[in-house]
Specification:
Keywords: Membrane, Transmembrane, Transmembrane helix. The chain is mostly helical. Helices cover about 55% and strands about 10% of the residues.
Length: about 130
């Protein structure tokens, strides 16, 4: 009998201490079952993601990896500088600076560009002017 009274006392003490705690309702509100997206919307999402990934891959490849032809008119530039030097429009220092500028322009062209002489190009090639 003594055990039964101890159990009743312990149970009653626990219920009194639980009154201070946050009470949780015994019945949760009824939730509607989750509605799954329709087949058409899933296909539209898949197509949109696929097109976006494909376009970004193509643009990235074209911008950073694809080889492109760039023409530099070195002969024309040197001839123009020579004519200016002989006419007295350029002195020795300015002539050296102009050739340094030509070198800087050529070295600044990205590595995925193929550089050819400007007089070899007939059409449809990007031409860099120093």
């Amino acid at each position: 009998m003594n055990d039964e009274t101890n159990i009743k006392i312990n149970v009653s003490q626990e219920s009194e201490s639980n009154k201070d705690a946050v009470s949780v309702p015994k019945e949760y509100p009824k939730q509607h079952p989750k509605q799954h997206p329709s087949l058409v919307s899933m296909i539209a999402i898949c197509v949109a993601v696929s097109v976006g990934a494909s376009l970004s891959t193509i643009v990235g490849y074209d911008r950073w990896f694809a080889q492109k032809v760039v023409a530099v008119d070195i002969k024309g530039y040197i001839a123009q500088q020579r004519d200016n030097y002989l006419a007295g429009k350029l002195n020795d220092d300015e002539l050296k600076k102009s050739f340094d500028r030509l070198e800087n322009v050529i070295t600044a062209i990205p590595k995925n560009r193929v550089i050819i002489m400007g007089d070899a190009v007939v059409r449809n090639a990007e031409t860099v002017r120093p």
